[in-house]
Amino acid sequence: MRIIDTHSHIYSEEFDNDIDDVIERSKQAGVEKILLPNIDVESLGRLHAISDQYKGYCIPMMGLHPTSVGEDWKEQLDLIKQQFSERSYIAVGEIGLDLYWDKTYEKEQRLIFEEQLCWSIEYNLPVAIHSRDAIFQCIECIRNVGADRLRGVFHSFGGSEEELEKILSLGNFLLGINGVVTFKNSTLSTILRKTDLNHIIIETDAPYLAPVPYRGKRNESSYTVKVVEKLAEIYETTLEEVGQITTQNAAELFSLQNI
Q1: Cβ–Cβ under 8 Å, residues 156 and 205
Q2: What secondary structure letter does DSSP report for 8?
Q3: What is the tens place of the pLDDT at every residue in 75-134?
Q4: Going by C-beta distance under 8 Å and a sequence separation of 6 or more, which residues neighbour residue 190?
Q5: Helix (H) or strand (E) holding 24
Q6: What is the Cα–Cα distance from 248 to 256, expressed in whole angstroms?
Q7: How many Cβ atoms sit within 10 Å of the Cβ of residue 203?
Q8: What digits encode the pLDDT tens for the residues 218-229?
Q9: Cα–chain-centroid distance for residue 245?
Q10: What tens digit of pLDDT does each residue of 127-160 get?
Q11: Which helix (H) or strand (E) covers residue 60, if one does?
């Protein structure tokens, strides 16, 4: 079975003591690559260290996360953009809007998100979008910049049928599905039946959102198998087909064929 974990933070300190084992378990589970979105300036060192240690397997993105937006956002944004002239990245991410935790910097979040969407066009890269409690607002920003010139994924999708339809109407955006789809109180299984596997890629968001039966524990890339199993149940198909289609979707979106 082929799997790509398209969104993981295994460079975080939660993995300091057993990262080699985490990587080996991922490979044994069929995970071919792990894609690593950046968070802020503070995470740069860790992100690059893991990407260099497991070159070609752990592959970095670059962006400023909306929950990292504060008074120093201009300085952070300048330093984040500078990275694109120093290294290669497969996407601009993790970027977007978060209106769940704190709306203090909502205006700044929008400005920063649209600026980073422009980077996507400038560097011809896809975007990995964080949209907690802000899917419609993210779509508005995408349309402001130019939906026809952008492509990417709505990471950790868990929205409504209406939000699903709005995302797919953009034309070039996929849904990042993780352990949430296995939660008993999640309606995601029902919502996803309104679309098909051609619009889905698989992720963990490790160390967060571990799937059942690991819910509440540290998530890791090998647990993507549980997401594949749930999607196979939803679409009444085989694990191999889910893996094949979602892996191809990820490879095409992030141009992984030559990496």
Answers
A1: yes
A2: B
A3: 999 999 999 999 999 999 999 999 998 899 999 999 999 999 999 999 999 999 999 999
A4: none
A5: helix 19-29
A6: 9
A7: 30
A8: 999 999 999 999
A9: 17
A10: 999 999 999 999 999 999 999 999 999 999 999 9
A11: strand 58-60
- In tens, the pLDDT along 7-66 reads 999 999 999 999 999 999 999 999 999 999 999 999 999 999 999 999 999 999 999 999
Q: How far is CA 134 from CA 53, 73, 91, 117, in A?
A: 35, 20, 21, 16
Task: Tell me what pLDDT residue 259 has.
Answer: 65
Place of tokens 């026809």: 148
Q: Which two tokens stand for residue 202?
A: 């698989």
Reduced to 3 states (helix: H, G, I; strand: E, B; else coil), residue 161 is helix
What DSSP character marks residue 238? -
The full DSSP string for 95-159 is EEEE-SS--TTHHHHHHHHHHHHHHHHHHT--EEEEEET-HHHHHHHHHHH-GGG--EEETT---
- Rounded Cα distance between 220 and 15, Å, is 9
> What is the pLDDT at residue 101?
85
Tell me the two tokens of residue 86. 């120093």
Task: Please classify residue 140 by burial: count the beta carbons closer than 10 Å to its beta carbon, then call 0-12 exposed, 13-18 middle and 19+ buried.
Answer: middle
- What is the value of pTM for the model shown? 0.97
Cα-Cα-Cα-Cα dihedral sign, residues 79, 61, 39, 123: positive
| CB-count exposure of residue 194 (10 Å: 0-12, 13-18, 19+) | exposed
Q: Treating both helix axes as pointing N-terminal to C-terminal, what angle do 106-123 and 135-145 enclose, rounded to 10 degrees?
A: 50
Mean pLDDT of 186-191: 96
